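Checklist before submission:
- one chain only
- standard amino acids only
- sequence pasted in full

Submission:
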Amino acid sequence: MEMPIFRLKGQFPAEIRRAGHAKETIVSSKVKMNMIHEAFFTIFAFIVAALDIGILLYAHQSQSLSIGEVVALITLIDNAYTPIAIFNVIYVQYKLNKTAWMRFRDILDLEEDPQLTEGAAFQGLSREIRVENLCFSYEGKEVLKGISLTLKKGEKAAFVGESGSGKSTLAKVLAGLLKYQQGGVFLDSSPLEGLSLETLYEKLSFLSQEAPVFDGTLRENLVFGKEVPDARIKEALEQVQLLPLLSSLPEGPETRVGEKGACLSGGERQRLALARLWFEEPEIVILDEATSAMDNLTEAVAMKNAMERLSHATVVAIAHRLQTIKDFDRIFVFRAGKLIACGTFEELLEKSRYFLALYEKEKSPSKKELE
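Returned file contents:
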C-alpha cells in the first residue's frame, strides 16, 4: 500500500529518488567495506610471500639449499595462491552486488502510469461524481458489473456489502488506482481517465485499512514535510484520540515510530493516518475501512470528529461497522459485484432484506448466512 499512498500524497518521484540513492549508497558502502576487508588479507599474504622470497634468495646466495628451504619454496607457492583466492571472492561478491543493483534499477525504471502527469488539470469538484455502467475485471473474474451511481458534492456516502462484493474495488477505481475496462467515471463533466492524477491527488485523500506508516518520526508521518507547529499536531491527535500516545512518547512528535509503524498498534496506525486529514484540504475523501482496527468507542469519536472536519468535502466510506455510517446521507449496498440498493440507513432497513440481514449479522456475529 505504500506506493499508492506516495502517489496520493505527491511524494512518488521524491521517494523513488530517495530509494535509489539509498540503495546506491548501500551497495557502494558494502563493496567498499568488502574491498578494504579483503585487501588487508591480500596485502598481508603478499608480505608473507615477499619474506619467503627474501629467505630463499638469502639461502641461494649462501649456497646452502637444504630440504627446509625446499619446504619454504612450496609454502611460498601456497601463499601465492591465497591472494588469488581472496581476489576471486571479492570479484564474486562484486558481481552479486551488481546483479542485485541491476534488478533494483529495473524496478525503478518501470514505466510510470502516464496519467499521473498527462491529461487535463483537475480544477475541483463543483457538482457531482458520476459512475456510469462501470465494469471491472481482474484475472478473468468480473468484480464490478454495470455499476451506476451519482455522488453529489459535499455528500457523505457509504459503500456496504460482504467481503468480495466489489465495494473496495470501486473505491480504488474512483481514486484512479485501478483502471476500469468498461463504462465511465466522471468528475462533473470530466472523464476520470482524461484527468491528470497528480492534480486530482492535490484535492483527493485516500485512507486504506492498511494505514501505511513509514519509518520516520510521528511528525513526518503526519505532515509529509510541511512546516507545522506542535500545537496543530497536538490538536489533530486529540481529534483522533491519540493524545495519550503522544504523552507516552519519549521525544514527543519527534519520536520514531519504527518500520511500518512497528511501535504502534493497528488501531493507533489507523488513527495516525486519519489525523493526516487535519493537515490537508481535500475536496474528495475515500475511507476504505480506515477504522476497522479501532474499538467501537474510539471509532465513533474519531469518525464524528473527522466528519466535522470534512463537512464541505465529498466523502465515500467503506463501512467496517454499520453503526459508524448511520448518519450518512446515503448508503449504497453491494452484493456480488452489483449495486442492489441505495438509501438512508432507516430506508434500507425497511426496504432491503439484504441490508437488514447485514445489520442483524453485525448485532449477532454468530449468524452465518445472509437471507
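Reviewer check: Confidence is low (pLDDT under 50) at residues 367-371.
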